[in-house]
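TICKET: design request
STATUS: open
ATTACHED STRUCTURE:
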């Protein structure tokens, strides 16, 4: 039987050559790109809702509200296109993860391949959970800090492209960080990571997590750092449990 990538089941079950890997990668990238295009079309249909009721909402709900201004004649057009592309990527995250794991699949054992669907679902939930956490917790806290900081003699008129760049970067960074349990599962399956190792270096991990939280949080106050640091510590402990049950059987 031949699938859409042009490879038969017999070809997939044997070791693939370099050119075959490139051909497989090409098809996976094309399918991922098609998913992004479809997601972008959906985002374009609801772009007014996404802009006004979703992305602009954190700025409007601060005290005092942040004033956003457009500094370029074509600024809003470019901004809309960027938001459509990013939303297309976010909406197609399950498909992107699926194509990634299908590309990795030939290197997995037959007993491990059956977990691909579960891995895709879990990876997508982790990523979208990170985005949700950033939107509902991190961004309101950071924007309230920025709106209240400074002197009343200075008006906070923020360029709209800078605002959206800030919002999107924070959300995507949180989405990536929340993939920690998935990374733990994958490395444990490969035998690279063990729960014993993670417990042994827990104190080192705490320091690294706090430093990482300090770098990724958009505001320098301790509250914002803890808002990201505490969930990361919880994710680390969850990752230890996941690593324990993901170890390859002897």
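STATUS: resolved
RESOLUTION: sequence designed for all positions
ATTACHED SEQUENCE:
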């Amino acid at each position: 039987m031949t699938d859409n990538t042009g490879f038969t089941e017999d070809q997939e079950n044997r070791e693939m050559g370099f050119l075959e890997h490139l051909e497989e990668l090409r098809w996976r990238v094309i399918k991922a790109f098609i998913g992004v295009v479809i997601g972008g079309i959906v985002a374009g249909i609801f772009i007014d809702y996404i802009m006004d009721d979703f992305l602009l909402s954190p700025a409007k709900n601060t005290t005092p509200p942040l004033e956003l201004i457009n500094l370029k004649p074509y600024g809003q057009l470019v901004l809309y296109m960027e938001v459509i592309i990013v939303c297309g990527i976010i909406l197609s995250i399950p498909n992107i993860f699926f194509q990634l794991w299908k590309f990795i699949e030939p290197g997995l054992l037959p007993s491990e391949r059956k977990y691909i669907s579960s891995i895709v679902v879990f990876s997508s939930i982790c990523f979208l959970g990170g985005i949700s956490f950033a939107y509902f917790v991190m961004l309101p806290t950071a924007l309230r800090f920025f709106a209240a900081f400074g002197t009343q003699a200075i008006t906070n008129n923020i360029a709209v492209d800078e605002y959206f760049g800030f919002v999107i970067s924070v959300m995507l960074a949180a989405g990536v960080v929340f993939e920690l349990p998935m990374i733990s599962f994958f490395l444990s399956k490969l035998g690279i990571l063990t729960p014993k190792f993670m417990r042994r270096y827990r104190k080192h991990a705490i320091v690294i997590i706090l430093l990482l939280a300090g770098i990724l949080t958009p505001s320098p106050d301790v509250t914002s750092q803890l808002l990201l640091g505490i969930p990361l510590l919880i994710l680390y402990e969850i990752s230890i449990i996941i690593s324990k049950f993901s170890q390859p059987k002897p």
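CLOSING REMARK: Strands lie at 67-69, 157-159. Residues 6-13 have pLDDT under 50 and may be disordered.
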